[in-house]
Queue: 4 jobs
Job 1
Amino acid sequence: MRALTRTINKLTAKLLDLPQDITSDLPRLTMIGNVQLYIENHRGVLHFSSELLGLALSKGRLEVHGKQLVIRAILSEEVFIEGVIDELKYIP
């Protein structure tokens, strides 16, 4: 059933020319320089400190490494951080 749903979502996205992150439950990251990062479609904060943000994703997790990291806004599926971002790491 789940595979059928994914197939239907992919076909719908292709037919309607929709971005894959909308239909495939993928994260969308928008980064401005190395000082701001906006992440959509996360599944929760696993860890936060001024040097590391860990987020759960639908498939795997994302780690944001940096200095003076601050969460400026957080919603159920969106998070906006600022600071000096040194590294983004996707872990399957």
Job 2
Amino acid sequence: MKPIVTETRAAIIAGVRDARIVTRRLRDLAPHDVLVKILSCNLCTSEFGLWSGKRTNRPLPMTFGHEWAGEVLQVGEAVRGIEPGDFVGGSHEYDPYSDEARAGRTSEAPGVKSYDTQWDDGYFGRYEGCAEHVVQSQESIYKFAHRIPAPEAGFLEPLATVVNGLRKIDPHEGETIVVIGAGTMGVLNALVAARSGARVIVTEVSPEKVGVAERLGLEVVDGSACDAVEEVRRRTGGRGADSVVIAVGLTLADQQAFAMLKKFHGKVLFFAAGYPAPEVGVDVNKIHYGKMELYGTLMADYVDFKESCRLLGEGIIDVSTLVSARYPFDDITAAFEHAVQPGGYRTAVIMGKE
């Protein structure tokens, strides 16, 4: 099926500190495809890290954008449950109807398109949501129960990764969970973990981020004013935390996590990557004798996206505080320049009326 829009303007990272807007062709709609008019797309840490040159783990040039939201314009003939006019958010492109998926070459989670995929127009791409339009399989598109501001709906994917990670450590009432870092992902981890009934303590050294976390009603340890490890132990009566979520990619954060943990059966969730790669920072024998459980987490599964869509769409998790700035699509370079400044949260690129 021919899309009613055949071309779109799309942003690419062409090189270090080089973002551009180009025109690309949209593919024809397969039976399960959906054409969406993008309203906004948030810039992820991994994307502005590539733009700044801090990260070099993906080939350039490349399309990007996986924290987007928009309005459905057209659906393929086999699409059910999504129709024109619906307000939706996107995830990593995932198409179980493709030849690749049927051959079994997919991962356990949505987001299986490989980095070496090359578009017809010559630009490398895995994600393509920082554009005015996108065509994706209905399996990677989620309909919100209510229309919320598009930049907030763009938290669908990051919140889904949080839901996925916390399922591994399974926080519950009576436990103490420490989240190291009050950046975007740290705050999201704390807000979701708090819904379990567990006590959640956030540690942070940035005064601005300490203030944001406190305004959100979170219990915060200001690591710039005290020894965060000692303070967590003091607040837990010397026992330590049942679980620690590391939402900062630093060796010091890893060291603090293990020092904050209770003596036996503590859990550590490595949520954040760091560049250069941080070290674990603990004697392996302590892991062995302490019967610790260590978890790595990345991306999310279908059920996590569904839950994330519910939490956002029903207003259960409020992310409005985590949108630092909004920039028009044509100011994509200015958006990246703002996003790389320390101390901020998400920068939204606006393609249309929210």
Job 3
Amino acid sequence: MEELIYQITPLDNTTLPPYALLETADPSRELIDQYLEKGESYVAISNGSIIGVVVFIPLEAHNIEIKNIAVADQFQGKGVGKALLRCIEEVCKKKGFHKMVIGTGNSSIGQLALYQQLGFEIERIEKNFFLDNYSAPIFENKIQCKHMLILEKNLNI
């Protein structure tokens, strides 16, 4: 099996955001545009193509929220998502942030496992978040996505 070679870099203002990829993690273009405007984006690039993306925004009290993380289907399970999260963790530590927050759906089984493997802890559940904020039902793993699980990771600065 050939090793995947990629680099992670900030998304600059001259490059169009990878909407098709972002929409795999969040079907709302309106919400994506809102957090792209407020946040910072990093992309994983392999052979000139964006294969992964992560977007985070600053919150109050030296915290950040990861609003979107997505990896192209053919590159999932190859460490790209982990590398993006580890990169953001280092960026946030250097910028003096104390905590990273991320939300995922109750049906996002793989993502929930990944976040916990990287040290995120479940903090709370926002009941009916996806029912209240998205017009069409979302299904993953044959489970309706209804509730958002909020996970946090202290950066120990």
Job 4
Amino acid sequence: MKKLLSVFLLFSFISVHAQRTIHYGVKFDGGLYKLDGEGIQSKYTLGGQIGVFGYRDFSSRWGFASELMVSQANPKKAGDFAAKYIYTSNSMANTSIRLNYLTIPLLIRYNINQIVSLNAGPQYSFLFFEDENLLTYNRVAFKRSDFAAAAGFTLTFDKLHVFGRYLWGLSDINNIDDRYKWKSQQAQLGLGFNIR
């Protein structure tokens, strides 16, 4: 977390001293979320995000963008969950799971032209709410922090942005034990609206 904060502060410092305008606005997206790992269904489920964004170009080609988003993911428990986690699983657990994250992507922008830009960088997600009862004694099955690598594109039409992004989870978010790793993947498609 300290390294991520250091990178954010560095880019913020550079942005403040750049000679170009800061743009900001609101955005939302629909997406597909998948959690790969033992005891979890490895298939995409619907989710989404809403929040704010800001970006500044340092030159005609390069820039930096950041977002603060609230996201929801809906993975599902697999039929073999109790067999994988035999000593800790709740026999009455629901199949559906709801996870709400506060996500902060820090993205480098490469502008191909005035409309198309490519974006890539790290994303940190903090799990602030979970609706799941997978384990006995009210234990939480998911870790709070999730780091991911993000890559995608943005199409900018004056005040409107259309964007697509894919995220590969780098963190093991299984909080049950160390035998099996759970890693997330997400595909996002959405709209953003410039306020400035």
